[in-house]
Amino acid sequence: MLNAFDFLILFLASFRLTRFIVYDTITSFIRKPFHEMIEEQLPDGTIQTFIKVKGTGWKYWIGELLSCYWCTGIWSSAVLYIGYLVLSSVFTPIIVILAIAGCAALVEVIVEKLLS
């Protein structure tokens, strides 16, 4: 069983890894084979971007997974937790780095809200 501190670290690491996979520009190359970006001009003149999942079968399934924060979050959490249990010496530094980055992301959102 996890203690509260380990749970918190895994929680933050999973949060950051999931956002990294689903939203970050730097990982768009992972999503590109599975997603098509469609831009539409709205009546007020702004441009809104939509994701269309490409392909069928496994390609479509992976595309759906990569476009769903909740789905990717389950798999990210599972990989980190199992890695933590099975290969702790390899996964612990990765988990800690992701957790620190997750904290930084949350602090940035809070500061941005306070300043706006």
Automatic annotation (TrEMBL):
User: Which keywords does UniProt give here?
Assistant: Membrane, Transmembrane, Transmembrane helix
| Protein name (record) | Uncharacterized protein DUF1360
The UniProt record lists the keyword Membrane: yes
Q: From what organism does this protein derive?
A: Paranoxybacillus vitaminiphilus
Regions that span the bilayer: 60-84, 90-111
Lineage top rank: taxon: Bacteria
